[in-house]
Amino acid sequence: MTVRNRGALAALAAGVAALTVAALVACGSQPAGNVGAEKASTLASTPPATASGPSVPVTAGELPADAAIIPPVRLVIPGIDVTATVNAVGINERTNEFEVPPSVDQIGWYRHGPGLEADAGSVVIAGHVDSAKQGKGAFFRLRELNQGDTLTATGSDGEARRYRVVAREEYAKTKIPLDRYFARDGKPRLTLITCGGPFDAKARKYRDNIVVTAVPA
Amino acid sequence: MQLSYFRRVAAGGAVAALAFAGVGALTATPAYAATSKVSVVHGIPDTPVDVYVNGKKTLDNFKPGDVAGPLNLEEGDYDIALTKPGEPIGSAILKVDNAAVPGGANISIAAHLDAAGQPKITPFANDVSKVAAGKARLIVRHTAAAPAVDVRAGGTPVFEDLTNPNEAKGDVDAGNVKADVVLAGTDTVAIGPADLNLKEGTATIVYAIGSAEGKTLGVVAQTITGLHSAPGGVPSGDGGQAGTGVDTWWYVLTGAGVLLLLGGGVRMATARTGRK
Predict the structure, then answer these.
(1) Chain A hits for B254, Cβ within 8 Å
(2) Per-residue CA distances from B144 to A167, B166, B250 (Å)
(3) What value does the mean pLDDT of chain A take?
(4) Is B273 a member of any domain?
(5) Domain boundary, last residue among B91, B126, B161
(6) Is residue B159 located within the same domain as residue B169?
(7) How many domains does chain B have?
(8) A98 lies within 8 A of chain B by CB
(9) Looking at the domain assignment, is residue B271 inside a domain?
(10) Which of A63, A192, A195, B2 could be stapled to B237 by a disulfide with Cβ–Cβ 3.0 to 4.6 Å?
(11) Are residues B68 and B86 in the same domain?
(12) What is the pLDDT of residue B25?
């Protein structure tokens, strides 16, 4: 074998090696994919309203009172080592977006939506995947959750409520059906949201949202 | 005395019929939605009634201060009559014939006193458009025998110079406010103060009812839910550690791999030709 030949072979081998590594990395960085998307959308659908019967509902026209809502205060997800304090949060006035707690080890419950007591609708808790300044967030590993994983949300009443994951979905932020995840009707469910997908280092933004849907276990 | 009172009520009915037609003109009618939601609000003090719709008794012994509905009514014309409880429809005390209910609307029909204390029926088209996330809609309707009023929240007038039978409305931050009603331009409290819990994504409609002269001023409230909007987004990360895209070095590596393969292949080929 000539020197020339050996050089050519080495180049070929190096090329194959480089492409193999690249292919492996590309596969490894693929999103984990959606599971249970259909289940999640079924939960959000409401049965058609029954035709109004002969009796008309009559209520005393009193001023609306404070509703007895039970906010979640603690969330534990053993599968991904999450134990986090839950804060009641609302809307950022400036951006009209969900006010995720600035501290990345804390997560936020959407106080305008249902609480843990609700027998319908989506209880929404969102948390950071990470932050440039603080590092990994409480929901860094949210995308690793799978169907059947369990989690526990404890309410302000001290009661621990168990949930079972039925779906994990990834949506581009421009396409995510937020109305469905912030619905106040449909089956009772817990919706966990964080960021994911490719990261735009210039805009310091993730392209996608990861959404995990769980139902009372 | 009683009889003359009822005559006046019947006269009010004619006015109401005209007002109904007004609602039809004001409310846009989407072609796909033929039914409307109709609520009935009772704001005439001391006068319980039976309510008949198209000759059929729909509400039995409907009491002042109560809200009935919503009823799903097909688009069309309806005859509405109020009688004293148990009395036949022939002796109705307030009547509206051929009241036009437009399709796809949300209407509240208020039985109340006009500014001079005469009973009448006024239909209001309810604004059920979505409110922004975090907001609640407050609608105040003057349906009392009283002069013009201001509505104050936390002591500051928010709606001014409201007269019977008109409404004022606004979308405000959801939450609790202390509200009262004062005679327009004064600090003379006519109703309240009361704590209002304005729940996010709802419309709270407050009717001022009764009579200033009769010292029966009060409020009736109606709440419409389901007007909420989702937040604009859920921004929850700016670190990039969880990014699943491939970085620049991946493209460099792939490019280098391709070049090496091509280069090596060419050399192999030329080497073979060289040996021939």
Answers:
(1) 18-19, 22
(2) 54, 10, 74
(3) 90
(4) no
(5) B126
(6) yes
(7) 2
(8) yes
(9) no
(10) A195
(11) yes
(12) 44
Q: Please tell me whether residues B1 and B117 are part of one structural domain.
A: yes
- A140 to chain B, minimum CA–CA distance in Å? 7
Q: Mean pLDDT lowest for which of A127-131, A162-166, B115-119, B263-267?
A: B263-267
Residues B102 and B156 in one domain: no
| Residue of A21, A98, A194 lying closest to B237 (CB–CB) | A194
Residue B162 CB partners (closer than 8 Å, separation 6+): B140, B142, B148, B149, B150, B151, B168, B184
β strands within B1-116, DSSP E: 35-42, 49-53, 56-62, 66-74, 76-83, 94-101, 106-113
Would you call B235 and A97 a contact, using CB atoms and an 8 Å cutoff? yes
Q: Judge whether B176 is closer than 8 Å to chain A, CB to CB.
A: yes
Q: Specify whether the CB–CB gap between B39 and B109 falls below 8 A.
A: yes
The residues spanned by each domain of chain A are 35-44+69-216
Task: State which CATH number among 3.20.20.70, 3.10.25.10, 2.40.260.10, 1.10.3720.10 fits the domain covering A35-44+69-216.
Answer: 2.40.260.10
Tokens of B12: 């009010």
Q: What's the average model confidence in pLDDT over B239-267?
A: 79
Distance from the B81 Cα atom to the nearest Cα atom in chain A, whole angstroms = 16
> Closest partner residue to B58 among A2, A56, A128, by Cβ?
A56
> What are the pLDDT digits (tens) for B197-206?
999 999 999 9
- Which residues in chain B touch residue A182, judged by CB atoms under 8 angstroms apart? 133, 228, 230-231
pLDDT at residue A61, rounded to an integer: 92
pLDDT band of A23, cuts 50, 70, 90: confident
Report the CATH number at residue B1: 2.60.40
The answer to whether A172 contacts chain B (CB < 8 Å) is: no
Phi, psi of A4 (to 5 degrees): -55, -45
In this complex, which of A8, A61, A137 lies closest to B66 when CB atoms are compared? Answer: A61
Cross-chain Cβ contact B244/A196 below 8 Å: yes
User: Residue B264: inside a domain, yes or no?
Assistant: no
Under DSSP, the state recorded for A187 is S
- CB distance from A120 to chain B under 8 Å? no
Residue A162 CB partners (closer than 8 Å, separation 6+): A150, A151, A152, A216, A217
Q: What is the mean pLDDT of residues B161-167?
A: 97
